[in-house]
Amino acid sequence: MSDTLSKLAKTLPRLPRGFIDHGPAALGAQRRMLETIREVYELYGFEAVETPFVEYTEALGKFLPDTDRPNAGVFSFRDDDEQWLSLRYDLTAPLARHVAEHFDRLPKPYRSYRAGYVFRNEKPGPGRFRQFMQCDADTVGSASPAADAEICMMAADTMERLGIPRGAYIVKVNNRKVLDGVMEAIGLGGEANAGRRLTVLRAIDKLDRLGPDGVKLLLGAGRKDESGDFTKGAGLDDSQAATILAFTSARAGDNAATIANLRTLTLAGAGEEGIDELAQIAALTASSGYGEDRVLIDPSVVRGLEYYTGPVFEVELTFEVRDEDGRNVRFGSVAGGGRYDGLVGRFRDEPVPATGFSIGVSRLIAALTHLGKVSTEDETGPVVVLVMDRDQAASYQKLVATLRQAGIRAEMYLGAAGMNAQMKYADRRNSPCAVIQGSNERAAGEVQIKDLKLGATLRAIKDRSEYLAQQAEAQFSVRSEDLVAGVRRVLARKG
User: Fold this and answer.
1) Which residues pair with 118 in a beta bridge?
2) pLDDT tens digits, 207-265
3) Are residues 163 and 258 in the same domain?
4) Contact 245, 211 (CB under 8 A)
5) How would you classify the pairing of strands 110-119 and 47-48?
6) Residue at a domain's end among 312, 340, 370
7) How far is CA 44 from the centre of its chain?
8) Which of 3, 57, 295, 379 is a Cys-bridge partner for 285, taking CB atoms 3.0 to 4.6 Å apart?
9) 133 and 43, same structural domain?
């Protein structure tokens, strides 16, 4: 009876919805990719900074506590002082807090980058997780369009350093001031129209998928999709919708022509200022050799976060992949950002301009895997020193130490199984080779080195002479003092 109760009391091992475990292969790919990104960022003069996973909820700005708990979107809890704390939902809001808190001692402009996990308390779905990694770079304290242009050029360089060829990506640039100017010109300015403006932004964001006709429906009364579901529109009249579509279709053959088209639009507010900023970004990037094939002015780009105040950027991969239904679709966006001049100012009396962008690490790894730039195989494991005689643990540990001192990953088998099980263990560890020393080898001052990968291929060799030659390499003896050279002989075959 007690055994039954004990079994019933066992905790079921299960992963929370929206989270994922990462194995050695995925973590290795992520580490290598982040190292490449870091090299590019530091080449541009950005320095590393790290903020904690947890911030005061009020510091995040976008989500504030209601009477019972913070609104949906963040994971939140109260500390001992009844203060609301939240897991960060992006890396930008914590940076704004960090800059404001240390404002007087930081150099301005302040150029920094950071990589880390962020958390969204949202409904998970296919490819949509509640925890994921971002890698950001930001310049705080400069209002110059040169800072925005530099972000665009750095984004392009990052893609190419990661192995995405020119022509397979594009850095698209727009300006929220221009879009806001269009909105004001058609009577959608002011706080009272915030909801309708958001509906318009969502419609524009679907331009690639639905085309101008589909977007026009969403700008008007609404649109019914193929399944019969109806999406309510922004309620614009034909004239208003035509103005919005004229703005989104202003892109021309080159950046200069696109900007010329934008200047023909009727704008209000800071719209003309936004066009001037786009013209400066285009000129700055072109002067450094970043043409329209890398940095493109595109009025259809819409960034969803409400705190963007000027230029916005999106890094789009242009090659096609197969979707779940076998259709060819573009891979799409892997990074984005823009200017957010009001975010740091939430903490200070004076305005603090800022601009930056964020890479979605998991999505970019998926793209690199598709291009064959990321290995999906497990990384090579350590050399495993087998334990043949239990009373000789010190001798085996000495062999392991010799390998480690030579910079070779190695471990001594710590289980209690026999030789066959130990060999299987080395295979499961993806070890390049096993080191074997029984009593006979010890007495002779030798060790056996077994190449596990080469040994596995022997069965497929039909030619006897070739088999014998390969067998001699698959397992061979060396003097104990030549252990390191023997293992390196195997490792050299693995590249």
Assistant:
1) 132
2) 878 888 888 888 888 888 888 788 888 888 889 989 888 888 888 889 999 999 999 98
3) yes
4) no
5) parallel
6) 370
7) 19
8) 295
9) yes
The model carries a pTM of: 0.84
Same domain, 464 and 388: yes
Alpha carbon 4 to its chain's center? 46
Strand order in the sheet with 54-56: 54-56, 84-87, 76-78
In a domain, 199, yes or no: no
Identify the residue whose tokens are 């890094």.
315
Q: Is residue 391 scored above 80 in pLDDT?
A: yes
Q: Which token pair is 91? A: 């890396």
The pLDDT of residue 150 is above 50: yes
Q: Say if CB 278 and CB 311 are below 8 A apart.
A: yes
Q: Write the Ramachandran bin of 141: left for phi over 0, alpha for psi from -120 to 50, otherwise beta.
A: left
Give residue 5's identity as a one-letter amino acid code. Answer: L
Q: How does the average pLDDT of the chain come out, rounded?
A: 87
CATH of residue 303's domain is 3.30.930.10
Give residue 11's identity as a one-letter amino acid code. Answer: T
- The residue segments making up the domain with residue 450 are 383-493
Q: What is the dihedral of CA 14, 17, 18, 21, to 10 degrees?
A: 0
Q: Which two tokens stand for residue 75?
A: 């994971």
pLDDT over threshold 80, residue 320 = no
Residues 307 and 390 occupy one common structural domain:
no
Q: pLDDT tens digit string along 72-86?
A: 688 888 888 888 899
Residue range 261-285: mean pLDDT, rounded: 93
CA–CA dist 327, 109 (Å, integer): 46
